[in-house]
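Feature request, filed as a ticket because there's no other form

It would be nice if the structure record came with a short human-readable summary line next to the tokens. Right now we just get the raw output. Example of a typical job, pasted below so the devs can see what we mean:
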Amino acid sequence: MKKTRVLIAGFGNVGRGVLAAIGNNPDMELAGIISRSPERVAREVSGVPILKYDDVAGFLGLLADVAILCGGSKDDLPKQGPWMAQYMNTVDSFDNHSRVPEYFHAMDEAASKGSHVSIISTGWDPGIFSLERTLGGAFLPGSRAYGFYGLGPKGGLSMGHSDALRTIPGVVDARQFTHAVPEALERVRRGENPSFQPGDMHTRECFVVVEPGADKAKIEATIKAMPGYFAPYKTVVNFISQEELNEKYKGFPHDGAVAAAGTTGKGNPARIEYRCVWGSNPEATGNVLVAHARAAARLFAEGRRGAFTILDIPPAYFSIYDREELLAHWI
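Raw output as currently delivered:
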């Protein structure tokens, strides 16, 4: 079995999830890790090269087939994505929905010029749920497909929003939990096809640790005004200690569902739903990223170039199994 060699770019929670996923896929192998803090990574991982981001000759010498970019969407990926795409094939989980078109075009330009493949905005949303929304709208013409997150009583922990909180000056650590608005989901299930504003479907709850003497009022105002993350939503900000955060809000659970409702034929009601429940959000994202790395390698081998999303890729390209196995046991 020819293995796809993966370079992990960035080693936070998502990078750790990717590392775990590589170990569960026998057709994948870790070529190395690049990080802004290789000394920190070396305390967690051994047996593979660990290099700095700017060591271009070093990481190109690892002969990786695909780099999985694990940086944050707010500040990291908009710069790192196009920069890496000029050197090699990439996969990322850019998750700022409002900026996906802009990011796609930047990545398409960089990957095309570099003669590489870049798959963007993959994970479970955007990613899996993007596909399910598209299918729901196609299979129930005239309906709208909606994504809901944090359906359980504790909500779901968002890595992207938590990362955005940690970029604010004075914030030491933070977790952000998303809560679905139950009545909004029921309206969708009833087939109302409502025209929701972003804040109609979810609320956001933040647990924030700040530096001693930090201006909490300023930090709270900055959070609630942050475009693309918190500005459109009802947002509650709780300031707590690091000890309380570590004890009460450890782990990374998340969940969500895509729902679409409409009619078929002569007005018969119909509903489509797709649900994900994850005990570990970063490990779930890592699994999806690794499957997309497999797809990126296959697209590249076919001579395809430029940027892609999950909507552009045949589902068989994600699977470790060949066509005959898929025909025999998965169709």
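Something like this underneath would help us a lot:
The domain at 4-125+282-329 is CATH 3.40.50.720 (Rossmann fold).
Residues 281-301 form the longest helix (21 residues).
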